[in-house]
Amino acid sequence: MKKISAPLTAKEINGLKAGDEVKLSGIIYTARDQAHKRMVEAKKLPLNLNGQVIYYCGPTKTPKGMTIGSCGPTTSVRMDPFTPTLLKSGLRGMIGKGARSKEVIKAIKKYKAVYFLAYAGCGALMTEYVKRATPVTYSDLGPEAIVKLEVKDLPLIVAIDRTGRSIYGKK
Question: Is 127 an active-site residue?
Answer without folding.
Answer: no
